[in-house]
Structures are given as structure tokens and as C-alpha cells.
């Protein structure tokens, strides 16, 4: 049995160490995790970068030993925001009614505590490790994923990876990609008293937005459903008495693994050209995080489902994960078959009064122990 006391103690201590991102100062929390990994007998490295950013990595087993698996989760949290709105101090890490409370309790400090609880259980059992286990607690998942990108750039590779994100203990094998596109509309400025002499770029933008609202995608994914697209930013004009010659609209697309960003871009251009001359607009990609998918028949997916059934007594379906996460880089950049699996509900992440059930963290640790045993046997 994993130690509930240990998991509670670690989760609570992790919440107490503020690692809000922005600004993203993970060095203190990385140092705390490093001490725990050393106690577990892991070869431990803190990779400090940009002054106060840091990843921490713990390894059991030798390089190139196979099979190998990475437990990956993040050290940073989204900011706590207005502390007056919280019913407890966001960095207290207190336990209330069987829940760990505070910013990051769900996303993802509770999960990191479950990972550590699982590793400690294996260490206590003096389990003979055949293969290699890598624990990667990374920086910057909530902003750009610099931490996991750095790990991949350092050539750290494993046969499998589990990304610790709140999935309510479902196995998630895919997530959508995030494609951010900006469309600039150009018109001609004139005095606002004679608007018919000019070309108002805001009208172009409004025509376009109406079309976007009605957009229907043909594509469908069995775990991820439909792609989505929504305008998230609009900027136009410089003064209240000038017909604006510029208006830009930013769109957030969530695309499926079958969709290519270039095709989306071309389709969008085609849609705009139906009403607006080509010289009056420009389309460009501002940010792109590719979608990711691991085949259902992958060994890790099978083992994870089996382990969940053994611990919870429930048969679980595989699912898609709503948001993008570091799985994207592990799958697309490092070609590591990856699942997302963790305690806590995604709806309870990034909210005021964030809290996670201790029982769920313990269950997760039991599941991780089984997955590690089965994968590395
Ligand atoms: Zn997260």
C-alpha cells in the first residue's frame, strides 16, 4: 500500500511553495522535489535556466536500459489571482474535509505527490527495477512548455511516458492542437464625418466574424469530438473620429490530429476572399501546439486500463483530453507513446478554491505503482 501520510505531506508542502507562472520561478520547488528524489535513491539533476526557472529529473536505472518510462508533470501553476476571492489562503496547503487545498492542488502538485508516493512505495519494497524510470517535474507547462521542450532537446528518451494532468483517473490518449491565427484587415482612413470616402477595416472584421460564428467543421474524432474555432481578440482603430484603416482579429482554433495547420490557413483565406479582396487582408499563424495521439492498442494504454481496473474495480474507456499539454511535445518532437492520466478533475483546475481529494491522490499512486510494475517487468 502506498503511504497516504507521505502523499498528503508532500502535496501540502508543494502547494506551500509558490510557483505561479507567470512569472514562473520553479527553482525553489525544484530544489524541494530534488531532495525527495535523492531520498528515494534516484540519480537527481536540477536543470536551472533563465535564472530562476528549473526542471528536476530523477532516474532509476542506467541510460539506454529498456523498457523505460517517464513520469512527467509540471512544477508551475497558473497565478492565484485575487486572493480576496479565495475562502482559504491559496498557498496554505491545508487539508480540509479530506482535501488538499490551494493553488496547484489539482494542477498538478497533487499529481506530483502521487508520482512520488508511487516511487516511494517501490523503493520501500526494494523492488528490483528492470529497465528505467524517469521522473521529470518540469517548468513552464502553463505557458510555453519550455521545461518539457528542454528535456527533449537534451535527448532524454524513454519507451513510454505518462503525463500527469487531472483526468479523473481516466486514460486520455489524445488531445487537440491549438492553432492561433491572426487576421489583419486593411482599409483606408478618412475623417469620420465622411465615412463613405474611406474603407472601414472594422466592417471587414465584422463581416468575417459573422462567418466564423457559423463555421461548421466536417472533421470528427472518436475521442476528441469536433474541432472548434472562436475569436479571442480584436483590435481596430486609433482614434474616435478616424475611419480605421486597420483591424485585426485573433482566432483560437482547436484542431484534430487529422488536420494540418496549413490547410486550415488556406481554407480560412478562401472564406475571407469570398467577401473581401485579397489585398485587404493578411493571415498569419501566431502560435501552434500540434495535436497528439497514441494508438489505443499501444501496450501502455492496455496496461494503464488494466491497472485502473485492478485498483478501482471499474472498467474505464479511453478518452480525449480537453486541453493541450506537454503530451504534444513528447509525441510530436520525441516520438514517445504517451498517455495522460492523473487524479482530480480538470474542471477543478485553474479555479478559485482549488482543492483535490486525498483519496483520489492515493488511488492514483496505487495505479501508478501497478503501471510501473507491469511496464518494467
Ligand atoms: Zn496542468
Structure description:
The chain is elongated, with a radius of gyration of 24 Å. The model has no long low-confidence stretch (mean pLDDT 96). The longest helix is centred in the N-terminal third of the chain and has 20 residues, at 105-124. It contains nine helices and 16 strands. With 377 residues, it is an alpha/beta fold. The protein has two domains: 4-175 and 291-375, Zn peptidases (Aminopeptidase), CATH 3.40.630; 177-289, Alpha-Beta Plaits (2-Layer Sandwich), CATH 3.30.70.360. The two termini are 19 Å apart. The strands form four sheets. A six-stranded mixed β-sheet has the order 1-2-6-3-7-15, with helices on both faces. A four-stranded antiparallel β-sheet has the order 10-11-9-12, with helices on one face. Strands 4-5-16 form a three-stranded antiparallel β-sheet. Zinc ion binds next to helix 3.
Note the topology:
Elements: H1 4-16, H2 27-39, E1 43-49, E2 53-60, E3 68-74, E4 95-96, E5 99-101, H3 105-124, E6 132-138, H4 146-153, E7 160-163, E8 171-175, E9 177-186, H5 201-213, E10 228-236, E11 246-255, H6 261-273, E12 281-289, E13 292-293, H7 299-312, E14 318-321, H8 327-332, E15 338-340, E16 355-357, H9 358-375
Parallel strand pairs: 3-6, 3-7, 7-15, 8-14
Antiparallel strand pairs: 1-2, 2-6, 4-5, 5-16, 8-13, 9-11, 9-12, 10-11
Helix pairs in contact: 1-3, 3-9, 7-9
Bound molecules: zinc ion.
